Amino acid sequence: MTEKENGLADDPGWFELKFPDLLSADSVREVHARIVAEWDYLQRSACQMAAGRALWKHVIHDPLADLLAGEACLRNLHEKIKKDRSNNAREMSGVILAVRTLWFDSKIEGALTSFNGRDSQVVLLGAGMDTRAYRLSCLKESDVFEVDFPELLQAKANLIKIAIESPYEHHHHQQIAKSLNRVAADIRSSDWLEKLQSAGFAPEKNTVWVLEGLLYYFTHSQAMQVLETIADKCNITHTVLLADFMNKPSTTLSNSVFHFYCDWPDHLLPSLGFSSTKLSQIGDPDAHFGLMHDPLNLFNKIRSLPRSLQTHPDDGKPCCRLYLVQASGSPLLPPIE
Ligand SMILES: C[S@@+](CC[C@H](N)C(=O)[O-])C[C@H]1O[C@@H](n2cnc3c(N)ncnc32)[C@H](O)[C@@H]1O
């Protein structure tokens, strides 16, 4: 399928909102009714991310995404994209999410390749409705850990079980990862690492940490606690951290539910113990994926400005940036005698 300048598929039929039959099954409706009635904005954000992956299906292959997103989130995002289309917007709703997903996919694969096939594990903190354990073939030799709130992991497990057992599903949803361990924990509390270890996480194994759409929901001290805990692991084994960071203007938008920001993650992470850090912005050559052709779209305009600028010189609007950051570290070699 070809894509237009704004990243949407260039196929009018593609954009009809069609729900998979399974979404109307009673068992699935029950799970989603509880999600709508009982979950807070933080947990529901997981379904919004899944809706993004479902509607950007021309670039992201995630056959479970519709089911995990639920009708309400799918309709909501679909309406936004429809509006963007009729306004000829340069930035389509969901494009950031699509680029972010593809960036994390490619960096996870790269990190696992850099471990040269050695025993590895991948930890998804704030995993939400992520289905990488079912869709990334690079995970077949890895133990995967998904950490999130208990009710979210339970609902996700129920929905995936329904899909796997459904005779009506066209897709075969098979787990690809060597193992998949769901760890119910509040990452703001002091015992999340202990819970991870009880679930089988081995500190000495090469590890990729995936913090996608997570850090900015934390306060500064909560986010630092998580980053320091991960950085400490660089002293024990080969460690790769993949995370997205908002800059200050992004968190200070009105109605923002975001707290933690970092304008210079490429300075912060080395100070915690990572030996190499690479920062990308949406639209950079490795964070583009053919979805950012328009040189005048917001991301391309901001990307070319110095990062120290907090407001755009042309219109005084805040320069809201999302940094995609890869950092790595490993134990120091013993000194040569
Ligand atoms: C925006 S979603 C991102 C989900 C997933 N990483 C993705 O990109 O699709 C944020 C996720 O972080 C989880 N989360 C936020 N704070 C958490 C905490 N303190 N403990 C455990 N999970 C948390 C939420 O439940 C939600 O699933």
TrEMBL record:
Pfam families: LCM. The keyword Transferase applies. Signal peptide: none annotated. One of its GO terms (molecular function) is methyltransferase activity. InterPro entries: Ppm1/Ppm2/Tcmp, SAM-dependent_MTases_sf, SAM_mthyl_Trfase_ML2640-like. It comes from the Eukaryota. GO terms for biological process: methylation. The keyword Methyltransferase applies. Keywords: Methyltransferase, Transferase. Belongs to the UPF0677 family. This is Uncharacterized protein LOC111496264. It comes from Cucurbita maxima (Pumpkin).
